[in-house]
Amino acid sequence: MPNYSWKGRTRSGRVQEGVLVAESKEAAIMTLRKQQIIVTAVTEKGKEFALPKVGGGIGQKEIAIFTRQFSVMIDAGLPLVQCLEILGGQQSHAGFQKILMAVRQDVESGSTLADALRKHPKAFDALYCNMVAAGEAGGILDTILQRLSQHIEKAVKLRAAVRSAMVYPTAVIGIAVLVVWLILWKVIPTFATLFTGLGASLPLPTRITITLSNFIGAWWWAVFLSIGLTVFLLNRYYKTHRGRRHIDRIVLKIPVLGSVMRKIAVARFCRTLSTLVSSGVPILDALEITAKTSGNAIVEDAIMTTRRSVEEGKTIHEPLKGTDVFPGMVVQMVAVGEQTGALETMLSKISDFYEDEVDEATANLLALLEPIMISFLGVVIGGIVISMYLPMFSLISKIG
Question: pTM above the 0.70 mark?
């Protein structure tokens, strides 16, 4: 059997190493675990056993569930490394499991939990890492994790409410476009051949419909190529500093939809800032993290302007009022919170209010979109049908 050199730590934290004879690496690791040794490395013939570090593809629901379970286990008094090992072992998401195992290995090596999490920014963002760091520094990691889980769960709920409200109109518009495309591509050419064979005089609406059908039949690939190119160029433009601000400003000015997006941004700002401030994160760091997680470049610029003013010694509500992004009620309640020393409580109440406003606004948006979509579909499909029936009237009169 081969020899394996190993390194590890005991439960008390003392580093140990040695050589072990075993059938395989897995058998060597199991033997060491039975001896209450936490393995950090196993080597055979120059080959090193290491847990890979990967990131990305982790949903917010997985993060929320993990955080909730983590807080319960820490509150129950389980050691940090043991919590990470248990939670990592029971993860169904393979990528997230590898991340947690990598975090566990870093913590075993002496790293703080916050520093270990920062190595995986695609799974744990700046807000998460800074709150964990504040919890470790203050000795209230379990409390911080509970607040984090509540914050993530409410953020997931807010995002799900917006997405669910947009599923119906998106599905209806997609199906309508597909139906119209099929009619123009397959059905209209049959009528065009019939009218040509009968020598019917074609009115203007019919000629337009047939021309559009011929274009789609001959240049369908160009249509798809143009749509793909437009989406690609818009995406590239949005990734630029100027483009993102230009598009986000237009979105905020769209009737009804702009109001919904503004309320979402305000709710997110208040919830995030409240969570960070209540967790002991310094106000300047909290504002910077909140700006990066706002989801809108215009709101982000307004928060960063506020941060610069606070850095100069001003209050938060004064620069917020000057940005013209946040509603007056938000500015007034922030001012009251600063004066009474209960800023985090006031921000939490504002976020609760605006999350309810978002639910109501998305319902109203859906109610408004429904008749608009029905009218649009009626005009488009009805116009195609009428344009095909107009030549038949002249043919019927000739037959008569």
Answer: no
